[in-house]
Design goal:
ATP-binding, 221 residues, Rossmann fold, alpha/beta, transferase, five-stranded parallel beta sheet
Length: 221
Amino acid sequence: MALKTAKPKVIAIDGTFASGKGTLAKRLAAHYGLSYLDTGKLYRATAKLVIDAKGDPDSAVDAEKAARALNEMDIDSFLSDPTLKSGGIGAAASKVAVHPVVRQALFQLQRDFAKQGAVLDGRDIGTVICPDADVKLYVDAKAEIRAARRHAELVGYGEDISFKTVLAQLKERDSRDMGRKDAPLKPAEDAHFLDSSDLSVEDAFDRACQIIEAVIQRQSQ
């Protein structure tokens, strides 16, 4: 395991769905003593609020109302809701995230969180939320491998869904995330690419630590 030679203040982790970026981000936050925010859960929480209100995730009006309501809530407790991990909420989250008004409504919340020193993971952290982050990582893996991970997760939650369906949904989500006009999913120009396809959780963590240590050392010279 890499040793901590210096402590970064902000680590931005972007990447595709089910690439392992969330698990990696949590490990890195604990390793460096930083706060952690899964920004994807903000959009999942927004989607849940829309659904609970009998609204339409495709409606910018319904989605913006929910996002602004989320800003007034105790998000720590709300983001721990296990139902946010469900497949239905995930699909709706990808829809509400397309609306620029939603991203604007959640922008400052994420920026304020990062000010304390944090690891944030999502789709636009290195490009939009924290463009001046000390270190930026972009995590990806082959679609079939990501689908297998997600399928196992959903089955573990008790959902009855086929691998074929999960793979199709994942590809659709990738297309939506990468193709949206506002803050599309893409690597920041100075992001370091990490392919987790053939890496264990521990190997991905070690590789990320090596990248972070190298970047911080160069910055301190």
